[in-house]
Known about the structure:
- It is found in: Plastid, Chloroplast.
- The protein is of the alpha+beta class.
- Helix 1 (18-38) runs parallel beside helix 12 (387-406), helix 23 runs parallel beside helix 24 (980-996) and helix 26 (1084-1096) packs across helix 27.
Amino acid sequence: MPPFYYNSFHVTVPNLLESQQTGFQRFLFEGISRELFYFSTTIDHNLPAIGKIRIYIKHQNWALEKPSHGELWCKKNRHTYGAWLSVPVMLEHELGHKKRSRIRLGKIPIMDSKGGFLINGVPRAVIHQVLRAPGIYFQSRWVGNKKKKKKRKRCYSATLISESGTWLRIEKDPKGRFWLWVKRNKKVSILLLLGLMGYECVDDTQACLFPSLIGVEEPNFLLPSLRWWQEDDDLGDHLPTIKWCAIHLYDAVFRGPFRRDLNLYTLTKTDKSASLRPGPPLYEEMCEEGMIQNELIEKRFYLGRLGRFNLERRLGLPNFWNRVLSITQSQIVHPLLNNLIEIEHNPVLYFGYKDLLRVMHRLALFTHGDEYEDDIDHLKNKRVLSVGELMQQELHRGMKELITYAADTEEWWKRPRKKRYKKYELALGWWDLTVQDFFPGTHVSEGFKRFFVSHPLSQFMDQTNGLAHLAQKRRMSCLGPGGLTRQTASFRIRDIHPSQYGRVCPIETPEGTSAGLVSSLASHAKISRYGSLCSPLRPVSPQANLASFRYVSSQYEEKYWISTGDRMQVDEGTIVPARYQQEFVTAEWDQVSLIDVFPMQYFSVASSLIPFLEHDDANRALMGANMQRQALPLLSLERAIVGTGMEWQVGFESGTLLRAKEPCRVGYVDATKIATQGRLKVGIKNSLLRFNQLSTYQRSNQNTCFHQRPFVSLGEYVEAGETIADGPNTVGGQLALGKNVLVAYTPWEGYNFEDAVLINERMIYDHVYTSLQIEKHQITICETEAGPELVTREVPHLREQFLRHLDPQGIVQVGSWVEVGDVLVGRLVPRGQGYEVTPQERLLAAIFGERVVTMDEKCLRVPSRGRGRVIDAHWVHREDTSFGRIKSIYVHILQRRTIQVGDKVAGRHGNKGIVSKILPREDMPHLQDGTPLDMALSPLGVPSRMNVGQLFECLLGLAGSFLGRHYRIMPFDERCEQEASRKLVLSQLWEARTYTSHRWIFESDSLGKSYLLDGRTGDVLKQPATVGKAYMLKLVHQVDDKIHARSTGPYSKVTQQPLRGRSKRGGQRIGEMEAWALEGFGAANTLQEMFTLKSDDMLGRNKLLNTIIEGRPIPSSPSDLPEACRLLLWELRALCVRTQILHTTLFSSIGPS
């Protein structure tokens, strides 16, 4: 057998947004039709002034209207980008008159090309949800006293999870009895559920013998049990009853139809209490749980297609039918198998009593050890809900509310309408009646609005950079409705499962309480039609096509030996790493049936961007993947010298680029638009120009600047799909998040201790890490009871220097440079009706000849640290509400932020730090050729954190900077040979030394290290340091957004202490440890001020201002009782505890007797 080559064909990365786009397309083309078919019904009305009317709702010919406005208009005017859903409806009068019309059921948000939604002008994204798949799951647990292990016994249970409806848990106790758990701590007999499903017992004898009839003692189900009972002397008298029960049971299971008419078991119309007719009062237990609520029992246990498939797979349907066919010679069973074949091929999507008997039979086998326990953490037992399924559930709720609203005859006449019909105006009332009187068209729209605004899986879109934009849409969460909670999720659920291999990234997950509960799709993983995660695998057989591969689920791959895709060549008989039945083992190459198609198909997109990933600890790789999504778009972008090759794909799929739709020539280029001209067609001399508008200086959700730059020049020819404009984080179509800077791992006067970073002032003057920030300021203009609010430039009592940038309408002019305190919008609010003009105001008005001002100034001003350039100011008119017509004014200010002390920088390997000091260029340590360093990092942060990949990256980047090369290194390159990464780096350093004649680049006594010179003294540092070009990022955690100071501010109403938090203008709070620190330094006066004047001494802080103005010393003792002490006294009095304050003078008389 010839050697097998792994790299004999190339597998491209699939569309990274396919899971979002496919799910939404399935909702449009299948989900809407399915829900409209479900709710296609007729509604009868008997209106007093009109007569009997029947409404027909038809599901055929439904349509989605084209959106009336584009995405840019909706974003600017704070509207939802969506399409109206309309269906045909017919009204029929009892006299034969008919009216046909189309109604709008509601507005459905439409997904844009980037995989997101625009809700009220705000971009949002819906992530996937991971839930337990519908089906049956068998589990066991120990019952009894934990201290007495010998007396503990096993209890076996089967949990039924339905797609929509109630969960069931059937339990078999150690005594062989079957129970149904209605609540977590409440159980009832299984006979109740069987009775609800159509099976009834005659007397208590059958109820006692029922567990034995389904194979407790013998797995062969029924007939052997009858023979066993017949031989028993004690129960021989009950044999006729047992036979009757068996015949009745089999007749109910095999002969009767599956869908029994259960109207007898529904709630009575007269009595709304939890009682059934007919039936014993035991049914009340089921009614309390909500299993029966005016509908059939079958609708409460809807399995769906996936649930039916999982149920039959787990119950082993072929084996079950074979056991039944093996006893067909019996006279009891043989006549009852007429409809067996018809039953087998009839798809049943609900859980019936036939399934219940199968579950009880399998549970009996499970007791005897003939069945295995299910692994609930296995991916085959989970399903992924895409955005389409979540929106279909919301459409179902909205349609249900709409139908209920339209069918409410009693309340219909009380609803507000344009005309009131009288009893004698029958003909006029019918002809004036419209379909819109019954269908307001707000239930579906409000349902979708509520879903996108408040649902836990609908998130504020992360638009920090293109990678964050893409990674959020590939995220999966176990949280949300029907899922887990952060407080109750165990470590077992959060841990990595072997079935996730190649489907869920084992690295990228949030830190904190959501660790393991929120994960990301692997780069090559896909979501199937029924919500299972699939990974691509390639057959190994020589007959298979080299380019053939298929996507398989975790359940399918358990049957085969699968080898990893991290080897370049395999000879016959070689021992290779493999996995089989969720175990990682080694096997001979001849045993392997399938192999992975790509070495990096196990990791997410963000993890695949980390070079030399195999040399990093998993925790640091997690931080590196998460921090790449926090990188800010810089003013000047630069590609990474060392990458992985995924930069092209991520930049292409990020949605920030502008690509050519067809082969064309560039006909016009400027900063705002690009015009392309298609190729000449036959018979046409000239082709029209197609203009592509660029997004310039647009604000993102995270206040970053979204700006597109032209990448082509005039007259250039481009092919379809090529980049014609770069986004805020791409260069030539490649992802570019940071800068290649010269770093050294060396200490410097303690300023880079721990995670501190020392940087060169060149970063400021050359705008290396300068970013643009766009702050949004909003003000609302509404109509009050005292009158409308005014927007004007004539604001009394304000100096002209604050109003100098306002236009005649009172709004700041676009292009103005505003400082802190400047007025952006001049607004006057009318005073209330209870306000009276004081005599002082009248006197001043008479002296200066001015009219009395009856309006207060409530202007929009530039906040602290908000100076910048105004780039946009526009009005937004909202719809009419109960408060009148509301207008809003939005002002966007562009800020240019250079890097400064307190900003956060990081690499791609989890090496993060805070800028501690900015040194002049001449003081920074420099190389032997005189080049000063850009950054100095702590060398102690590498060995303890085990992220050695950053050393390989910076050394290879140093060689690439001298050789003018860019490297794309696929992680796990040790598949080529041992120590491949080290050999590559050293060979490139040697080549760079030869090319530049710089001996310090590669020194034999210290490989990868070089001696640095102190910039202040010119002396050589004692120890050599690792020097290289590292790709460093500037993160969104900027000090300008975090620094805060307070002189005065709001106080809590209860404790009268300053509020906490920057957003509330809160103050510094002193805790127990802070008090210890002040005590240790002996700062008694400072500590007293913290506890009294700056805390809750209300009288003292009111007197403090006058004390400072008059120049008197601040009192050393508190002037009043602190509010916290006063609050404690009131709480003690509420507990009827008498309290008394003892002054210091009283203690002088108290002493020892």
